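Contributing new complexes? Match this layout with zinc ion.
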Amino acid sequence: MAIDVFAHEATVRARPGRLLGDVLVDLGFCDRPTVESIVRDARAASRPMQHLLIERGLIDSSQLALAVAERFGLGYMSLDNLHPDIAAMQLVPEPTLRRLQAVPVGFRDQATLIVAMSNPTNVLALDDLTMLTDLRVEPIVVSRDDLEVLLLRLGRLEREFVQSDDAEAEAAALEPTPALEASADDDPTAKLVRSLVSQAIQLGASDVHFDPDDGDLQVRYRIDGIMAPAARIPRRQAGRVISRIKILSDLDIAERRLPQDGRTSLALDGRRVDVRVTIVPLVDGESAVMRILDPGDGPLSLGELGMGDADRARVDKALRRSHGAILATGPTGSGKSTSLYASVAVVSSPEKTIMTIEDPVEYRLPGVKQMQVFERAGLTFQTGLRAIVRADPDIIMVGEMRDRESARIAIEAALTGHLVLSTLHTNSAPATPARLIEMGVEPYLVASAVDCILAQRLARRLCTHCRLPVRVPGSVVGLPDDRHEVQIYEPEGCHRCRETGYRGRIGLFEVMTVTDEIRALIVAHAPAVKLAKVAIEQGMRTLLDDGLEKVRSGQTTLAEISRVTG
Ligand SMILES: [Zn+2]
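Output block (do not edit by hand):
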């Protein structure tokens, strides 16, 4: 991730520096008499004075590091603001770095590696690193404690994928494509790709992007919907990384001019994580996107997604019926398929047969018969859905109503004794019936089949460790009067939230029950605004209402609400 070290001109070798004792006094860490007595004791004992300073508790290891940095005119960083680039970290094996007491943490530019050290005067280590990496090396100072944490982290990164044979065999048996572990060897490129995916999962990222950038590969994670830089892969390794990703997902390495889609899986902590891979040829090189399909311990419940009690009661009521359609709508990335999975979990029981057709299958649901769209082989939403209807399920989940034919079959299934759950791309709940009619489904079929429509968005959740209280007039957050100010929060940023001010996401919902009045409006082709007016009179809260309530309760911000509902 981004490394921003204070600019400096001098290098270690060119600048002998001031005496450490003087720097400690100037920085106010020690007084002059203390320094003088330590210097005397150090001489008498033939030991470095910094050891005595730490041993006697006169300064701590970060104060020492700060003083060392100051003395040599180098940058200082603590782990709180240092986000190491894991491509850089893995340029040199961990045992070597432990011996050198140095960890590469990022790149200044294509030819310069930034290396964290607690003793930047160790020119032998600097020379070794230059030889090993073929890059110029620029030291920054970290405390001994932080350096040890970096080395431990690196060791863990390298060990992470040494799985038991059992776990590997199981993963291989489950998936016909080569699992990431199947070729776990000492190949540094394979190791790098594995650790990037692993780190992405640990950070809760949904996607890993590898984009060509001036010959290098820029790696970014999508975390809570927002792209964050993760690593930079140097030019000489870039091509190998893309090839590696293709091999893992069973794609053609030689094909560099056409887009390709594939899939792979990764056994991590005994759990299997599916990854969907998309390779896109761009004018300046190939880009790869790895979508992590199983980032957590299964799908969240509607409550965990942030749906309020009243809305949940409406959805539950529709889910308890034996037939009819429940639709989740919103743009891509609004979390509607997560809501669909949460709904399936509500109705799932051993007495009921549930079948799904999805693209992709994002979670495996126990006891549910899941089918994956496979267009190349002719298995589309349409053909899959036809087969499902013949296979006599009670509940059908259709990943997405993508075209007229799949929409029509799903709606007919809802009218013939099946409970149908599906998603659609529309902006609001009241706009959804019109969209179905536009797709070619008869208005009276839409009106009689659809029972409940939920529109949703995902807003980033405020980090509770650093959010800042601010006071605003009530009208700003949707309250009717301005006589009282209301306390809400703004994002600040701390090391827990990677300085973004946000951690995780929360759903905003708009749940419309299709009542008799609304059915009549649908049959009469009434515009969405008219449906909205009646639905609000009947108790529907809009996405904006729900968002503002979540601002008032300190869960998210006005900026997020306008970003996702605007
Ligand atoms: Zn924070």
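Reviewers usually confirm one structural detail per submission. For this one: The longest helix spans residues 144-159.
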